[in-house]
Design brief:
WaaL-like; mainly alpha; about 300 residues; about 5% strand; transmembrane helix; membrane; transmembrane
Length: about 300
């Protein structure tokens, strides 16, 4: 029976719905593709414009986020953007994945035949994508972005050859794109924070390999689990009960005398946010009612600028 924890807790069986919705969206998108193609429209070009619109929205959020917090050109502070992706709080790679996947569609439109003003606009968006992927400071994102752009250019190079486009024109476009991209990427790549991240590649790779081995050991024995896993959305629960790594602190929403309260368990740090709209020149106070079944328990409250 659904309760207050059903859709707010990663240990809930309903967590499977959060994971499975991605497959549902893919299935629905395939159906739309089929209908548009059946009507005789250029599905690839329409989809490329849709992805470009999504990239543009993501870029604008990233620019606003950077402008609000560290600054657009401050690449020293330890700050990594999250963009419009709410699930980044669990350590996902959603923003760099989306930017990397969307970039080839943008390149396809940029190299394709179009007006000069459209190409200028698309070129500016490509620079925005480059800036956005670089300020994620994701090392895998950097590599994936480079591979994605290379494959996109190679694919369009093949089409241009079939259309007998001169090699001089193809080379000029590729050179212009490369210079523009590197002019944005290089200053960020050689910034202090980026160099610090790159220096930790070996150590972080070891930790991820250990994490992978731990995840494999958590599974039930048998061929069915080897093929299909422990079940959709069950990784948080399985990790909590079976992992040899440090566990994340659990949480539950409880009810007592008609009032809800938050129960916290032991584990690695867990951050719960309360957004407050403040006005300049006013005083604010924080009041919390808490209890613990163990002596000397401590609760830490952090106040930070977070929001737009």
């Amino acid at each position: 029976m659904p309760d207050a924890n059903a859709f707010s807790n990663y240990y809930s069986p309903f967590n499977a719905l959060r994971i499975a919705k991605g497959a549902l969206w893919a299935f629905l998108l395939y159906g739309i593709f089929a209908r548009i193609a059946f009507a005789g429209h250029n599905v690839a070009r329409l989809f490329a414009f849709g992805m470009t619109g999504g990239l543009t929205g993501t870029i604008l959020v990233v620019i606003l986020e950077r402008f609000t917090f560290p600054g657009l050109f401050n690449f020293t502070d330890v700050y990594r953007v999250t963009g419009p992706f709410s699930q980044m709080h669990i350590g996902g790679a959603d923003i760099e994945t989306y930017l990397t996947i969307g970039a080839p569609f943008l390149v396809m439109l940029l190299i394709d035949k179009g007006s000069m003003w459209l190409r200028i606009a698309l070129g500016l968006i490509l620079l925005g994508v480059t800036y956005s992927i670089m300020v994620t400071f994701s090392r895998v994102g950097y590599a994936g972005y480079g591979v994605a752009l290379g494959l996109a250019v190679a694919r369009n190079e093949k089409e241009n050859r079939q259309q007998n486009t001169t090699w001089l024109k193809r080379g000029a476009i590729a050179l212009a794109l490369s210079l523009a991209i590197f002019s944005v990427a290089i200053p960020i790549y050689y910034s202090p924070f980026a160099k610090e991240r790159m220096a930790l590649v070996g150590a972080d790779l070891d930790s991820r390999q250990n994490h992978w081995r731990d995840a494999l050991k958590m599974r039930d024995p048998g061929w069915a689990t080897a093929l299909f896993g422990m079940g959709i959305g069950r990784y948080p629960e399985t990790h909590f009960w079976r992992s040899e790594e440090k566990r994340a602190a659990p949480y539950w929403l409880g009810s007592e005398a008609g009032k809800y309260f938050l129960r916290l368990g032991a584990g690695s740090p867990l951050y719960l946010e309360q957004f407050v709209s403040i006005q300049p020149g006013k005083e604010y106070s924080v009041e919390i009612k808490g209890r613990s079944n163990k002596p000397n328990a401590q609760l830490t409250i952090s106040i930070c600028e977070n929001g737009y």
